Structures are given as structure tokens and as C-alpha cells.
Amino acid sequence: MSSNDLIVSLDIGTSKVRVIIGEISNGAINIIGVGSANSDGIRKGAIVDIDQTVQSIRSAVDHAERMVGISISEVYVGIAGNHIALQSNHGVVAVSNEDREIGEEDIERVLQAAKVVALPPEREIIGLLPKQFLVDGLTGIQDPRGMIGVRLEVECTIITGTKAAVHNLMRCVEKAGLRIAPSGIVLMSLASGMMALTKDEKMMGTVLADIGAGATTIAIFEGGSLAAVSTLPIGGDYVTSDICYGLKTQTEHAEMIKLKYGCARIDDAAPDVAFKVMRVGTNAEKEFSQADLAAIIEPRMQEIFQMIRQEVKRLGHLDKLNGYVLTGGSVTMPGVLSLAQVELESSVRIAVPDFIGVRDPSYSSGVGMIQYVTKYVRYRGSSSGPKKAAKSKSAASPAAASKPGVFEWVKNMFKEFI
Ligand SMILES: Nc1ncnc2c1ncn2[C@@H]1O[C@H](COP(=O)(O)OP(=O)(O)OP(=O)(O)O)[C@@H](O)[C@H]1O
Ligand SMILES: [Mg+2]
Questions:
Q1: What are phi and psi of 85, to 5 degrees?
Q2: Is the dihedral of CA 99, 102, 108, 112 positive or negative?
Q3: Is residue 416 assigned to a domain?
Q4: Which ligand is nearest to the CA of 331?
Q5: 3-state secondary structure of 261
Q6: Are residues 331 and 294 in the same domain?
Q7: Where in the numbering of this chain does the SHS2 domain appear (predicted)?
Q8: Per the domain annotation, does 415 fall within a domain?
Q9: What's the structural domain count of the chain?
Q10: Side-chain half-sphere of 5: how many Cα atoms within 13 Å?
Q11: In Å, what is the CA distance from 101 to each residue of 113, 130, 137?
């Protein structure tokens, strides 16, 4: 990859819109800019107000642009939500070459064939994950190029979403004055999985749970591949709302108290750490201890972990599981890890991006997207790609970079997932 290409990711979350600018220099990623803005127009992870969402995107982008001194024109945008579905599919073609040697063109054709699937009219394909190739019935092939055969097959997973959700996402980005890069809609679970999970974890069966503000997104990786995804309409906002009722205070105040004093385990909370709360409908303040607060938070967090476990069971993956990896802003709270270990009855760890400036689980999806795009969408780059012009207002335009050849992409997919 040429030096100093820029990749911009956009994560439109329920609490925050986050923009991350990654600079790719000789294949290594540096995070050079971050912008965030409070999110309006998103409920439980879904866009419910386009104009408000556009405003939030614009302010997050402006923030990142000011930090780096560039003008952002193109972005990779994350997609998530309960409209996302996975389905297995199979593509078959006859090898075209007269000498029966499989070439890149055959691979491209078989992948196109695998995309031919009967979908309900309201759904569309967002992505394709190849799992294995078969040549004349021989399974387990990652690289069929140069092999001799008559029949080339591919087994893959197709990622689909509703046209309405994809449309709303694209509309918001475009109305914010940005272009979506080619292949620029990225499944956030896949991106976070790339950031957060090791190859072995993906192989052995791991649940990646992103506990955000309005939603908890579950992604199950098994056999090296993404096996299931699901979104629960519950997250940190649920905890904040309980604090509101429990302490009888305003939402904003409850959120501030949660961030400052919140603890997910009553046993870990300090009874002597106290804070005052302005109560709704009065001018009076009342004092509470961290232990009082933990008594409200713990049952809610327990419930979230129980729902995660139930969902993994419903999806049929509970028995073959190696463990859980947690990410998303809500896992920052002290005590979450030990509570999760008890509730999930399995090994659990927390994943945090390992880059300066974004060492926080709420940045996992955004950082993961930069890694994903670097590896699968743009890793070859080109000399005509965007460069960071020192301190000048250059356009960060990822689409200008050349896309990888289809086979390079497939091969990298296998390296990552198999
Ligand atoms: N230190 C902390 N203690 C407790 N909660 C925290 C802490 N830091 C962040 N949170 C919570 O994390 C949530 C935000 O997480 P995140 O930024 O991952 O969500 P989002 O991406 O905006 O929303 P979603 O993914 O649900 O659409 C909020 O509910 C916030 O209260
Ligand atoms: Mg999120």
C-alpha cells in the first residue's frame, strides 16, 4: 500500500456519532483523528429522525476535520441492527478455460453466482463472506487458482439487511455532505470482530457482545467465520433510566452519576463514597452512596447478561461456546467484567482498541472498520489515492484508491477467518 492513505470510519450510535480517521502508512494503521458528537435521531440503534442524525454526523465530522486539518469527503459507514440477517449460500460454475485450469475470472464468476439468491423484496445484500471452495467435489480449498477441474463451487455466508435501513443510513450520510466509499457499508459486528477477537477465538466459538447505549449487538464466531448475529434493544440507556427512577432525578443527571460513580457489583461498591442528587420536582438534594447506586445498577446489568445468554442459547450456540468477549461503552463501568463472568458462566474478557487516542471500548466498531477496510477493501491502495497533506485542507477520499482484485480479497478473507 502506498504511504499515508487515509481511511475515515463513521459509527452512528445511539448515544454518539463517532468519526475516526486512520492513516495507513506502509500497511500500518495510525489513528490521527477522532471526532464525536451527541447523537440525536437514533433510538435503540436505529435511525428514527434523518435531519437530527444528519446534524450529529456533521458535527462529529467537523470535529474530526478540525483535529486533523483535512476536509472529509468520503467515509466507510457501519451498519448494525436487528434487520441484519445471515444466510448460507452456494455458487457453482463450470470452469471456463479450455485446459480446465481455474483462473481469477472463474473465481469472480462463482462468487457472483453465490450472490444469486431469492430474497424478499424488502431485503438486499450487504456483503458476502466466502467459507470454502470446492473443485470437482473436493472440499476445504482456500485457493483454487491454478487447480484443474470442471466444476468450481463456493460456500459462503450472505449478509442481508432491509432496504429501508440501508436507505436511511445512506440518506443520512449523503445529506451530511459525504460520499460512501465503494463497498463502504461495513457490518459493524464483522469489523469489531476483526479488532477484538483472535484467530483462535473465531475458530473455537466466541460471542462478541457490544453493549452500547441503546442496543446490545451479539456476533457469534465459529469455525473461523461469522455464524450468527443478533441485536437486543437494550444497553446502557436502560441502566440510566433505572437510575433516574431509583434516585428520582433527571436523565442527564442520572447519566452523569452513572459515569462518575457507577459500579456493576454491589460487593465492589464503596459504602463511604457519597454524592448528592437533585431530585425531580423539588429543590432539595439527597445524599446517596456508591453502594446505593450499585444496588440499582447490578440487577439491570445482570438482566442484560441473562438476555445475552438466552439469545446465544436461542441461536443454538450455547453448548459449543469457548467464551465471551465484551465491548461497547457500557463495559467501561467498574465491576462489569466480574459480574459478566458470574452471569455468563464462561470465560469473559473485555476488548479495547490498542491505538493511542481510542483506548476505549466504545471505539471498537470504528477502529475495527478501519482495520477491516485496510485489509479487505483498500489494502492495495494506489499512488493516486489520497494523501495527507500536512496541515492543508486536502480531501480524504478513500474511493480514489484502487480496489483489490477479487481474488486478493478472497485470500485475505480466508487468512482472517479460516
Ligand atoms: N464509565 C462508564 N460507566 C458506565 N457506563 C458508561 C461508561 N462509559 C460509557 N458508558 C455507557 O456506554 C454507553 C455508550 O456506549 P457506546 O458509545 O458504545 O454506544 P453507542 O454506540 O452510542 O450506542 P449503540 O451501539 O447502542 O447504538 C452509554 O450508555 C454510556 O452511559
Ligand atoms: Mg455502538
A1: -140, 150
A2: positive
A3: no
A4: 1
A5: helix
A6: no
A7: 7-196
A8: no
A9: 4
A10: 28
A11: 19, 21, 16
